[in-house]
Amino acid sequence: MKRKLFITTAALLFALMLIPAANAYAGEIAVSVNGQPVVFADQNPEIVDGRTLVPVAGVFQALGFEVEWNHSERQAVITRGTDTVLITVGRDTFTRNGVDSPLDVPAQIINERTMLPIAAVLQNLGYDVDWDSASRTVAIAGRVDVIPPVAVAPSAEEPEAVDEEVAEEEPEVAEEPTPELVAEAPEGTYAFPFEFTATDLNGNEVNAASLGEREFFLVYIWGTFCGPCVRSLPGLAELHEELGDRVGFIGLLTDFDRATDTAIRQTNDAGVEFINVAANQLSSLDAAIRGTARVVPFAALIDGDGNIIGEPMRGAGAPRVRSAVEEALR
Questions:
Q1: In what helix (H) or strand (E) does residue 22 lie, and over which residues does it extend?
Q2: Paired sense of beta strands 205-207 and 196-199, if any
Q3: Which residue of 49, 122, 252, 315 lies most exposed, with the fewest beta carbons within 10 A?
Q4: Rounded distance, CA 181 to CA 288, Å?
Q5: pTM of the model
Q6: Buried b vs exposed e over 277-296: b needs ≥16 C-beta within 10 Å?
Q7: Nearest to 278 by CA among 257, 250, 302, 249
Q8: 53 pairs with which residues across the strands?
Q9: Rounded to whole angstroms, how far apart are CA atoms 49 and 164?
Q10: Out of 1.40.20.10, 3.40.30.10, 3.40.640.10, 2.30.30.40, which CATH number does the structure's domain 172-329 have?
Q11: Burial (0-12, 13-18, 19+ Cβ within 10 Å), 130
Q12: What distance in Å separates the CA atoms of residue 178 and residue 63, rounded to the nearest whole number?
């Protein structure tokens, strides 16, 4: 009898242990596009009044749309080709090419991200949107212009919880060299060839001299909203610790101005110690590496003459970056 009681009690305790995990899982909502998961770095989808709200930029940019934010109107402007969609915070309608359509739940700001009832808008644009209750997944079927795991960088600031228009200061950018592709780095050590003055994540003023003289420099372009970027940070921090005396490291953050606190947390958690500044402080270098592709992560190795060693690395995670750095050091 005692043995039977012990087994029954143990089974009950085990079942109770599973309840919190099951409840935690039940709260998670996933989004997929053509079977590929959409990664949300700092704000996941939520259910409000029975409707699933998702961050505007995460899904629409994964579908190839440009997303801009109009501060004065508190409005997301979503465009691709001949389509223009306007989403205004607090309104229960959206506008596509001048025609208003209803939303079940108004768009709203949650944790400094614009959240949208995605189904109504995507279905209006011709996408199939299904809800898989078993996996709690919003499944979107349609054309995808960005290949995972590359995430699309915002073309403009996303909203913060403020009403006033935010004006950006003109960055201090001196005349910069025009990068060319070269097979290998020249011998010796060199200063960073692109002049700039900026404020890093720690609030310190930094410039080209802050990077010191190195054999070459790794430029890593990333965003806090980009899951692959954030997952690469620990590996880059480890690489910097190992080879930082030979290779200069600098991160160009595409959403520096609107997500500084998030970037500080993400880099601290990953142990990142190399300099990170706003990408627009080195706009010509950013453009030379990424071209017209509004995607992150991107990485490139820059020599002392401002040339790109090898090829720019689209979608580069830490292992690929490590391989390129080690190859260039041989």
A1: helix 2-26
A2: antiparallel
A3: 49
A4: 10
A5: 0.52
A6: bbbbbbeebbebbbeeebbb
A7: 257
A8: 46, 117
A9: 29
A10: 3.40.30.10
A11: exposed
A12: 32
DSSP conformation letters of 150-216? PEEPPSSPPPPS--S--PPPPPEE-------EESSPPSS-EE-SS-EEEE-TTS-EEEGGGG-EESE
30-152: CATH superfamily? Copper amine oxidase-like, N-terminal domain (3.30.457.10)
Q: Report which residue type is found at 65.
A: F
What letter represents residue 85's amino acid?
Answer: V
Phi, then psi, of 17 in degrees rounded to 5: -65, -30
Domain ranges across the chain: 30-152, 172-329
CA angle 206/194/240 to nearest 5° reads 60
User: What is the Cβ-side half-sphere exposure of residue 39, based on CA atoms within 13 angstroms?
Assistant: 19
Dist. CA 66–CA 79, nearest whole Å: 5
Per-residue pLDDT of the chain (330 residues; tens, 9 = 90+): 444 444 444 443 333 333 333 333 345 888 888 777 888 767 888 887 777 888 887 788 778 787 887 877 888 888 877 788 899 999 988 988 888 888 888 888 888 788 888 888 888 888 888 877 788 888 888 654 333 334 444 444 443 333 333 333 333 434 455 566 555 666 789 999 999 999 999 999 999 999 999 999 999 998 887 777 888 899 999 999 999 999 999 999 988 887 888 899 999 999 999 999 998 888 888 888 877 656 678 899 999 988 999 888 887 788 989 999 999 998
